[in-house]
Amino acid sequence: MEVSTQIVDKIKSLRKKWPNLSKHKLKPLLDVYCAEIGHKTISATTIGEVIKRNNFFFKDAGKVYHDPNRKKLVRRKKTRIWKAPKQQPGHIEADLVETRVDGKKKYTVCWIDIGLKVAFSKTYNRKTSKNILESFLEFEQFHPGEIHTFQTDNGSEFEGALDQFLGKHRPEIKRLYTPIKSPKINGVVERYNRSLQDDWLNHNLHLFHDEETWNKSLAEYITFYNYYRVHDTLQYKTPMQVAGVQKSLKCP
Fold it and tell me: CB under 8 Å to 128, separation ≥6 — which residues?
């Protein structure tokens, strides 16, 4: 099937900006775009053929480290969660991704609602509890619903200021910890971490030393992830569509 130059160019621009966007995740966006320009839609198979034929593969190799053995600090008795939770809205998983470039480190805090798949991330030069709290407050403002449960591993950065704030100002939020070395129980945020790294982080390491530009680019990805990137587990809808914030899909 011959595909118009206009559609090929759109596929290229989307793949160039989001190199890991598969043909199945591209199709809903292209369907919207085709409707906007009055063009007949094309199948996911055809999209895949266009990608292969034109070599629309834009990879930027880099090293990203997610350190599961970062320093642990046990300050009080913790309520454990012993199996992966049911994926219901309002249950939040959080984690930290460490990135190293030229011997320097950055820490990206990741939050995701395991039911809605609404996610948020922000990068800091240090993994302090104050930075974690700041990131949580931004996520809380971004999140479209109520938060009833908050779950992390045993990293000390998720204690301190954040736990004190939750205890004093959000006592209704249930605080849970996974058992040591049990990443599968935090599986939703682990998968989000992988998407973040594959879709955005590995392709933007050239921005690493420019904190403002780095976080601006990350914010653009967060918008894309929540408003434009369809999810298999959400029946090819976006998180904000499922949350009721977004009525219809648009093509960026």
Answer: 157, 161
Rg of the chain over all Cα atoms, to the nearest angstrom? 19
Q: How far apart are CA 193 and CA 109, in angstroms?
A: 10
| Top CATH class, 91-243 | alpha beta
φ, ψ for residue 8 (rounded to 5)?
Answer: -60, -45
Contact yes or no for 43/27 (Cβ under 8 A): yes
Question: Tens digit of pLDDT for each residue in 147-206?
Answer: 999 998 877 888 889 989 999 999 999 999 888 777 788 889 999 999 999 999 999 999
User: What's the pTM?
Assistant: 0.79
CA-CA distance, 191 to 177, in Å (whole number)?
Answer: 18
Q: State how far the Cα of 215 lies from the Cα of 29, in Å rounded to an integer.
A: 25
Which tokens sit at 161? 């200021």
